[in-house]
Structures are given as C-alpha cells and as structure tokens.
Amino acid sequence: MLTLYTFGRAFGLPDGSPFVTKAETLLRMAGLPYQSNSQGMFKAPKGKLPYINDGGTVLADSTLIRFHLEQRHGIDFDAGYGGEALAMAWAVEKMLEEHLYFATLHARWVRDDNFERGPRHFFDAIPLPLRPLVRWLVRRKLIKSLHAQGMGRHGEADIITLANRDLDAVSTLLGDKPYLLGERPCGADATVFAFIGGALCPVFETPIRRHAESLPNLVAYRDRMLARFYPELVRGGASG
Ligand SMILES: N[C@@H](CCC(=O)N[C@@H](CS)C(=O)NCC(=O)O)C(=O)O
Q1: Regarding the domain with residue range 2-73, which homologous superfamily does it belong to in the CATH classification?
Q2: pLDDT digits (tens, 9 = 90+) for 99-147
Q3: What are the tens digits of pLDDT across the range 219-228?
Q4: Is any ligand 1 atom within 6 A of the Cβ of residue 61?
Q5: In the prediction, which pLDDT does 236 show?
Q6: Residue 17, C-beta contacts closer than 8 angstroms, at least 6 positions apart
Q7: CA-CA distance, 164 to 149, in Å (whole number)?
Q8: Which of 122, 146, 194, 214 could form a disulfide bond with 18, CB atoms 3.0-4.6 angstroms apart?
Q9: What was the pLDDT predicted at 116?
Q10: Whose CA is nearest to atom 12 of ligand 1?
C-alpha cells in the first residue's frame, strides 16, 4: 500500500504542514488507499515532507506526487476543466505555495507567542537535555531561510499586507462557487484547502488569520473541504 510520510495531525489540521495536507487531500480525492507514517523525516529524499513510497517508488514534493498519481494511477484531478481555468488554478497554487506560505511561516515561527503555541511542540519528543538546543537551531535555520527567500526581510506590517492580498485574490476568484473552478473540486483545491485552512488555524494569533476570517467564502470553503475529505476532523462543524 502507498505510504505518505507526514508530520502528523496538528493544531486541528490534517497536518502541521500545508504541503503534507495538500498531498493527503490529493490521495483522498483520488480515492487511493494509503497509510500515513510520521517517522520518515530522517529518510526524506529531499530533506522535506511530504514524500511517498508507492510500491518501492520513493518520491518527494507535493506537486511531483500529484503528477505521479496522475501518471501511475490514471487519476484525472481536473476532469471537466480545461484551458484558462486550469492555468488560473496553477497560478493560484503557486501564489499560495511560494508567497502566502512564507507569510504564515513568519507568523508561526518568528512571533514568540505563536512559536510557543505551535512549533515549539514539534520538539517535544527530543530528549530533554538536547531539546532547547535543537529547538533553537531549527528555529534559527527557519528564520535564516525566510530571510534568504525574501519574506523575512520585510517588517510585520508589510508581510500582513502582502498575505492579505493573497487571501483577497483567492476569495475573489472563488466567489460563490463551492470549489475553486466550479461545482466539482479540481486538483488545485487540495492546495487551496491546505493553505487557506492553515491561514485560518485558530491556534495562531495573527492579523492574517483575522483577515481570512473576515472573508466568509473562505471560511465556508475550508469547512466544505474539511467535511468532504476529512469528516473525522469535523467537530461540531468547526476545524479547531
Ligand atoms: N515543494 C515542497 C515543499 C515541502 C516543504 O517545504 N516541507 C516543509 C514543511 S511545510 C519541510 O518539510 N520542512 C523541513 C525542513 O525544511 O527541514 C512540496 O511541495 O512538497
């Protein structure tokens, strides 16, 4: 059976990582049987999660995993959609992965209060004498990578402005449709759900989350996707 390597359920989300959530949502959309394994980080072929082992084929990166599912298993995530709509969906995916992602990383890892609520606990399984050092090293690496990427060079107010533009764009494009392109989910909905769900995560206090909460179609979309693909995570209709 296909194995998906994950961080594991966290913060009421399918996974602490939106990229893992995206890959798992694609598997659920495809209806393929799979098992999750949250012990795979040290063997990750690219040093990141998610990756899969599909009958001996080990493959990292959520988008490459999608292409693999399409090619190996004949899944058509975008059935019924074409042309301009799919080009727009691709652009939305990459905006969320390459732009909004870094703003939410900043909110979770740089702000002390959010770090204490969330990422700090990723290290809870490390033996106590080593834990503070490992936590400090990983946080420092993350902050350096944000600086190298560019988002980390902005002040918090500018980061919020930039992130809110992404949320507004998704909200406008979604409009009153149930899914990004229409009545049925397309492949990009796995990504939109993962990143909008992350932005709305109630564990983290951030103006980005508050802006997302002020866009009712995004909240309804997150709830719709959660109910459809993760009914086990829905408690009284909320995702927290
Ligand atoms: N392009 C990759 C990005 C994956 C990614 O950035 N994963 C992060 C978690 S959100 C990770 O594993 N980071 C661990 C590290 O950098 O050490 C994908 O689409 O899968």
Answers
A1: Glutaredoxin (3.40.30.10)
A2: 999 999 999 999 999 999 999 999 998 999 999 999 999 999 999 999 9
A3: 999 999 999 9
A4: yes
A5: 53
A6: 6, 7, 49, 50
A7: 19
A8: 194
A9: 95
A10: 48
Q: Does domain 83-233 have CATH number 1.20.1050.10?
A: yes
Q: Could you please report the per-residue DSSP string of 37-63?
A: ESS-GGG-TTSSS-EEEETTEEEE-HH
Task: Please name the residue whose Cα sits nearest to atom 11 of ligand 1.
Answer: 48
pTM over cut 0.85:
yes
Rounded to the nearest angstrom, the distance between the alpha carbon of 236 and the centre of ligand 1 is 31
Helices (H), the chain: 18-30, 62-73, 83-95, 101-109, 112-117, 131-149, 156-174, 188-199, 207-213, 216-229
17 Cα to the center of ligand 1, angstroms: 8
Please tell me if the CB atom of residue 49 comes closer than 6 angstroms to any atom of ligand 1. yes
Q: Are 12 and 202 in contact (CB under 8 A)?
A: yes
Region for residue 32 given its phi and psi (left: phi exceeds 0; alpha: psi -120 to 50; beta: otherwise): beta
In the chain, where are the structural domains located?
Answer: 2-73, 83-233
Q: Find, among 240, 211, 189, 202, the residue nearest to 29 by Cα.
A: 189
Please choose from 4, 15, 19 the residue to mutate so as to test ligand 1's pocket, defined by most ligand atoms within 8 A of CB.
19
- Is residue 132 classed exposed, middle or buried when 0-12, 13-18 and 19+ CB atoms within 10 A define those classes? exposed
Comparing 125 with 5, which gets the higher pLDDT?
A: 5
